[in-house]
């Protein structure tokens, strides 16, 4: 039982199609099945492409939304800092206003900054010693 090389190929070429109704029906079924498979592949490819496009679009929208949210968070934080600074300024201004309505504070400012004095008092300013002059005039007030 020696088989010659290439012997199988020659035998497959010698097989011919039988032209009866069964083989014709089988060939038609195979052809229809191939056509269905092509149609199914085309549909899957088409709908897969649409699905992929939708996923890409939604991903882009998600990234832009995240970036927008981050930008808004930074802006909000800056505005909160600005608001806090303005609140601090408002408190300082209210305190200054309350002090300006206080007679003793006005007298102290008049003595320290403008060197005003009550009747019979003499204010001395020492060169380069502003804080000492303020302390002396404050002690004299008491």
From the spread of the alpha carbons, the general shape counts as rod-shaped
If helices are DSSP runs of H or I spanning 4 or more residues, what is the number of helices? 4
Uncertain spans? 132-142
| Share of residues in helices | over 70%
Class by alpha and beta content: mainly alpha
Give the biggest sheet.
none
Question: How confident is the prediction overall: mean pLDDT?
Answer: 82
Which percent range describes the beta-strand content? under 5%
Distance from N terminus to C terminus (CA atoms, Å) equals 135 Å
Number of strands: 0
- CA-atom Rg in angstroms: 50 Å
Helix-strand pattern: HHHH
Oligomer: single chain
Can you walk me through this structure?
The protein is mainly α. It has helices at residues 7-14, 21-100, 103-114, 130-141. The protein is rod-shaped and about 140 Å long. Residues 132-142 have low confidence and may be disordered.
List the helices and strands and how they pair.
Elements: H1 7-14, H2 21-100, H3 103-114, H4 130-141
InterPro entries: DivIC, FtsL/DivIC
Transmembrane segments: 44-63
Pfam family, one: DivIC
């Amino acid at each position: 039982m020696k088989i010659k090389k290439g012997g199988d190929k020659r035998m497959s070429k010698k097989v011919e199609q039988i032209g009866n109704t069964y083989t014709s029906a089988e060939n038609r079924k195979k052809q229809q099945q191939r056509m269905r498979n092509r149609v199914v592949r085309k549909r899957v490819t088409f709908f897969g492409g649409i699905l992929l496009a939708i996923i890409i679009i939604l991903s882009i929208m998600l990234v832009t939304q995240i970036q927008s949210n981050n930008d808004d968070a930074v802006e909000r934080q800056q505005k909160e800092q600005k608001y806090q600074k303005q609140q601090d300024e408002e408190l300082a201004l209210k305190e200054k206003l309350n002090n300006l309505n206080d007679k003793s504070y006005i007298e102290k400012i008049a003595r320290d900054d403008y060197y005003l004095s009550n009747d019979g008092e003499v204010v001395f300013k020492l060169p380069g010693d502003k804080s000492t002059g303020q302390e002396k005039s404050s002690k004299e007030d008491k």
